[in-house]
Amino acid sequence: MTTWTDYHVHTQFSCDSDVPMETMCRAALTRGIAEIAFTDHADFEPLDVCSGYFRPERYWEAIRRCRDLFDGQLTIRAGVECGEGHIYGAKIAALLATGDYDVVLGSIHWAQGRSVFDEHLFDGLTLDEGLTLYFDELAGLTTQADYDVIAHFDIIRRATHLRFGMQELDLTRHEQQVRAILRTVARRGKGIEINTSYRRKGIGEPGPSVQILRWFREEGGRIVTLGSDSHAPDHLAGDFERGLAMLREAGFERPTTFERRQPHGG
Ligand SMILES: [Zn+2]
Ligand SMILES: [Zn+2]
112: which of 23, 34, 71, 95 lies 20 to 30 Å off by Cα? Predict the structure, then answer.
């Protein structure tokens, strides 16, 4: 059996999950996971219902307890998923000073006051204008924020699916802009994740697409993690077989892992 490394998992320390960390650890053991990174949400965008929800003290208490409980069975990495790190840099820096985090995910959840999960992102915009708006925000994040791995790089597919009924998104017309963003990530020695929650959310294949993964490799990218973006135990390592196949199709050997923000493998 493959032993998985699931690098994007939420627990009750995220406002949109009520699952105790210990429950996630037990489920991880039954689902072939050898290493798990708990990346609860730290969002500061005032429009976000989860804004300011994350409590580092309670999170760290649970991490320490679970590391004791599952010692020798499961490698537990401390992580956090930070929204719009290019805008909320000071708050995120204060948060990261609360402990020795292993991995920091950088996410875009909002672009110019529009939720990227919502088809209303495209209100008043054409498909191409909406994509440009999203990738402009992502460019700001990848250039300026403190992160190790960019989460759900093409999450805009959710909105293009809802608004335009698209299962896939060919970014050829945006290749220059997307490659420039990937080049920035690669040159900073950072990575991107393959987020396998897309199929669960009805958007199709895990993201980003093999098209983007190949561009990342061509631009010098070497760090790719696998993450289920689980908010419930049953979702852990979901669709990882396909995620791993995509990683290999794009020329990467294996998923990267992190310890104290240093990448291993890949
Ligand atoms: Zn996210
Ligand atoms: Zn997430």
Answer: 95
